[in-house]
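thought: fold this chain, then report.
action: predict
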Amino acid sequence: MKKNTVLFLMFLLVFSYCVQVRADEEKEVKNFPIKIYRQEIKPTIKAIKDEVKPTIKTIREETKEKIKLRISASPSAFPKEIKKEIREEKKGFLDQIKNQVKEKLQALKQAKVIGKITEIGNNYLKITDKEGKAYQVNITEKTQLRRHFWGKASLNEFSVGDEVNVIGRYTDETKTVIEAVLIRNNSIQKRWGAFFGEVISKNSDNFVIKTLNRGEITVYFGNAKFVDNDNKTLTYADLKVGQRVRVKGVWDKTLSKLMEVEEVKVYNLKKTLSPTPQPTE
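observation:
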């Protein structure tokens, strides 16, 4: 009895720990894009502010000097009125500088777009949102590419038709060109686990399996290893329609395909014999 109680308590401790870890991960995922964007624009914001600091300093020094001269020239005048008058004169210059800074900071305003990929280039994507507006998304060495569950991705995993979340900054007045800080592909996720299904067709560079919960999936096997139940090496030619397989690879859930396949395990190698037709009387 005591043994069962101890095991139960251990289970509760492990379960509580897993729940907490999961909560922490979700919190981190939620804040992830914001953190990336803030880190990216921080140096630019500092540069914009540093650029106008000398001008503001000069205006303030000129204002102080002008106040002193005006007071010296008119001893009978009220110093407070003189200060107010001169500051009003300089206020226009300061407002002009503030507006320039505001415009530059406005250009850094975060761009958030969800759309489907229509074209893939070496360092850009073209996407269209649900309203039909087209965007060019430029990819730099600082752009982070992520899968649906935030795993690191590469551009060669992306496909036309994939849905992506883009976070970055607009670089043109029409707000159709984005310099991306983060591109999250909602259509792919890393799955090095098992995808079970029955082979329903074969092609030169892929075959199609029918799964229980995910429908039909096209498997692009590439240089994948083919093995049987006993892990003996097979070839693609050994695979037959109707056999059950387990496949490991990267799943594109929108296009229902598997890429970067590591292994294909074939379970029922023996071909099922068709029943012999019975003679009719």
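thought: worth noting. The two ends are 70 Å apart (CA to CA).
final: tokens above.
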